[in-house]
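*** Query protein ***
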Amino acid sequence: MSLVELEKPLKTSAAGQYLGFSLQQLRACFHLFSAADGDSVSLEGLDDVAVHRADGSLLLEQDKSTLTGNPAADKAVDLWKTFANWATLCTDKMIDPAKTDFRLFITPAKTGALVAEMSAATTAAACATVLAKIGKLIDPKKPDVGCGPQIRRFLEARPDVCSAIITRFSLVSEADALEGVRQFVRAGLPQAAVDDMTAAAIGIARDRLDRLLRDGGSKTLEAVIFRRQFQAFSRKSNLAGYLISKGPVPADELVAMVVSTSPTFVRQLQAIEASSELLTTAVSDYLRTTSDKVEWAAEGLVVAESFDELDGQLVRQHTLVRDEVEDVDSSLSEPERGRRVYRRCSAVELPLDGQTLPSHFIAGAFNDLANGLKLGWHPAYASLFKGDAK
């Protein structure tokens, strides 16, 4: 599998593909937009998505996307697995059912007779009726077949727990899951820019939540902080002239794998004694830039020839920077001069087809050129890596 394939954005099996994001990431973004000030959101923690409210209450949401079948059908195994998991969280005292709302989100739109009745049940009498119907779904002759084990696991919780879950349960089913996020970004935008900004919003939410998990600190993102970050991005981005990166920030494991395989651009950086931080940042920039090139070309945002034109400009910039460093900083060691050339080249700002590029792209493009030995950092890179020339 190529690095491009490894770094292409996650695709879901649902129709529309959610602009390259998972349904859970999309719903996390929706809740970050819609939650009240003081609330925060977590992804794949207590549930697919959870809203942690300022008053101590919770919203747990299980997200289902399907093109075939019906996860809301009366005997759907996934439906009862969801309820059984909620019951386990309650009995294990990880959540308080009296302070938790339970939601099943399904797209495309699906429903079922019993799940609709549960969603509407708000009284003790209605819950008792529903619980009786749930028990009858278990086949007494084959209790361990189909949904039977999951229903039993749900019903094994205390009756008050089961009743609380049903009372506070709601079904939300939408034909177009993206519309929930679009409604927050649509105002003031030309229609052609709405999906790009929607993708940017989901990407910001995903990246911030992923970073929190990697850093090992809080696993929740405050809605207010997310909205401020998105507003700042919106102000900065003139969507008619800003190319939005759609590739995810590479996982540490992927970056380490690339370093271990020692492609030419990595060895070029090692030749100038680049720090581990500079090296990992360079690999991340390279992977994201490679992914962006594939995505932008596939979507028709940039024509392939424009990448060649940009590469020509970068080679020229590299020549100018390298000549100046050799003239002005000749007293420095060769690795020091190489690091100076790399840093100055990485700071270059150039547009692509008149559009502003994300901050990682130029550095990533330089590393792509270094990988093909179109340029290099060490003063003697051409001789050091002549065996890599194609």
Q: What stands out?
A: Residues 252-388 form one domain. The two ends are 21 Å apart (CA to CA).
